Amino acid sequence: MAEFRPGQPVETTTPDVEVTVTPTTPLPVGRHRFQLVVEDDSGNLSEPSTAEVIVRDTQKPTAVLDAPREVDLGRSFQLSGKRSSDVALGRIVKYIWTRLD
Predict the structure, then answer these.
(1) Which residues of 31-48 are buried (b: 16+ CB within 10 A; e: fewer)?
(2) In the chain, what are the helix, strand and coil shares in percent, each to the nearest 5?
(3) Is residue 2 within 8 Å of residue 19, measured between CB atoms?
(4) How far apart, in whole angstroms, are the C-alpha atoms of residue 80 and residue 66?
(5) Cβ atoms of residues 18 and 2 within 8 Å
(6) CA torsion, ordered 40, 44, 49, 55, to nearest 10 deg
(7) What does pTM read for this prediction?
(8) Which tens digit of pLDDT belongs to each residue from 27-71?
(9) CA distances from 11 to 25, 40, 62 (A)
């Protein structure tokens, strides 16, 4: 397990490494580039090899609609989506309201 920070190398003696992500050290949605340089037993360094990883948010948000059970005829009323949520690090950016009947 390794915590990767931009520009700070992480050295291992094994050919695999886990990119550890936690709530306090998230890898945000978007493109992230990683680089590998290997060193042989003579101290020679390879040319860099790079890879791009795209972090996607594929989990649906949860809509919660709060409304009064009853309203008086001719009175306006409030609908609320304040309790709607997205997974950690995500945020709701649009509310799409529709009257169904």
Answers:
(1) eeeeeeeeeeeeeeeeee
(2) 0, 25, 75
(3) yes
(4) 5
(5) yes
(6) 60
(7) 0.70
(8) 888 999 999 999 999 999 999 999 999 999 889 999 999 999 999
(9) 19, 13, 40
